[in-house]
TrEMBL record:
This is HTH lysR-type domain-containing protein. One of its GO terms (biological process) is DNA-templated transcription. Keywords: DNA-binding, Transcription, Transcription regulation. SUPFAM superfamilies: Periplasmic binding protein-like II, Winged helix' DNA-binding domain.
Amino acid sequence: MKSSLDDIALFVQVVKHGNLAGAARQAGLPPATVTRRLQKLEHALGVKLLHRSARKCVLTQDGEAYFDAYAELVDRFEAAQQQFSDEFQKLEGKLKVLAPVNISHGVLGPMWVAFTREYPRIELELHLSNHPMDMIEMQADLAIRIGRQNDSSLYQRRLAQIENVLVTTEAYARQNGLPEHPAGLAEHELIGLSMRPKWELQHETNGQRFTLYPRCRAQVNDPLMVKYFVRDSQGIALAPLTEVKEELASGELIRVLPEWGGEVRDIFIIWPGGKLLSQRAKCLRDYIYRYVQQHV
């Protein structure tokens, strides 16, 4: 006797709920029907899958092995069904996104606001952190990351590149002068990012490279805060161009060693490989891509 996929899916739901009643409610079936179908599945397999009582169900050793073998398959099957449902195709409902703090407050700030204004029925849940959060654990639909992720279970799409440039103020330059070569940076007050222990610099014309391990008068874990120190004329910093573009344009900040640049970092948008994207997630993914192409 063969096991039907419906019965296997029902067994998975019973395990997830921990009892027959919860699975019966979700499936819209009487508890007696759920019991009968579980017995049919056990008979087809020739093993007992669950120890059942009035209030809970506990997996047997065989049941645990069977659940491990089929739970992910059932989840994918149900996700595929959901994708083609009308509800899944609507541009409404919850959408959880993970993103770095600095670019979300900076260049991407207007984008988040514009998206929620344009799609008011999508409930955006935006989690910001400069430390990557686990997408699976957070049950996130999308995430923005700096740098390619070494995880084959994720889909990744490159959005743009971020240049890093050396900056300071005219006031600092007048008082302290400016270096003529990256080696001279060691003689200056430096403001650094704690997650960047070394500055990898490259000459834009001849490709010459220089590595500096900066001794910083101040070190923080947020590029936005680095900019505040530099704007106060406290030193020189290697900062993402996206963070200082406006200040450079206005003259509030100036480039130091403009022929030298820091490491170029890629921005990626990522999503779980085993998860089918909802229409609202696809909508935001494509919205972010278009926005970044125009503004970064």
